[in-house]
Input
Amino acid sequence: MKKICSKKLDDNFSSKPLETKDEALLVYKIVRAYSDANEEGKLYELLTGESHNNPFLFLEAQPYSQRKHEGNTNLDLAMGSIKKREGTESGIQYDSKNQEKHFLFLEAKWDSDISVGVKYCTIRNQLQRVIDNALYFSFNPESINKIYVVLLTPKKYKNCFEEKLNSRFYGYKYGEYSLDSSIILRELEMIKSELPWKEGENLDSLIQENIKKLTLNWVTFEELIEKITKNSVKEEIKTVYEKINIKKRDVESLYSAI
Output
């Protein structure tokens, strides 16, 4: 079995049944299905629309933070031209020797929304933080051609976004950031007083350069589940996923009737 995450996470998730709306476990089962079928490239293309020859992938990956007062960001999934950071269990770094020169950071949400604010900065949001980390993931802009940040959610929330009926904060921020990347730059400038660069670092020019290579994508769980090659695995995940969603709707209907 291929290593797609830390041993601790694999031991916890490999035999754990999907019974609740645990997006980390759902992502694990979907990614494991693609990895076991040697279809990491197919998964990468579904998430980005871009092919990648044998992309490295890691769940619950932690790129190193360059900001004071902020620990490493926990990504639901990182893929592409990346590699493990030596001496760490889940740390990753950019692989400048990989000829493909692109990668993705993924944030998954089932029914929850992105978090807003951290101890030292109340205007920080989770999607902004993932994008920020992606923009300075490599200190050499010439080593990167493309940067992808992917939002993974149930189809119903993407449908709401497309109908301009956002029910989640990430819908608003995804829309803003997709339409005008200068909003990202202005937000990152605004947080500098509360989350400055670590001593000796100034990555403003790097971010200005790398944002030109940024693409935001929104993909659904349903799309990924449907494209799993092994039918028995696909049907198992699909059945449980739909059952949990129906159970949630039944509970909501019960409360609305009281």
DSSP finds ten helices and nine strands in the chain. Residues 250-258 have pLDDT under 50 and may be disordered. The beta strands are 56-63, 75-80, 82-84, 91-94, 102-108, 116-118, 121-125, 146-153, 214-220.
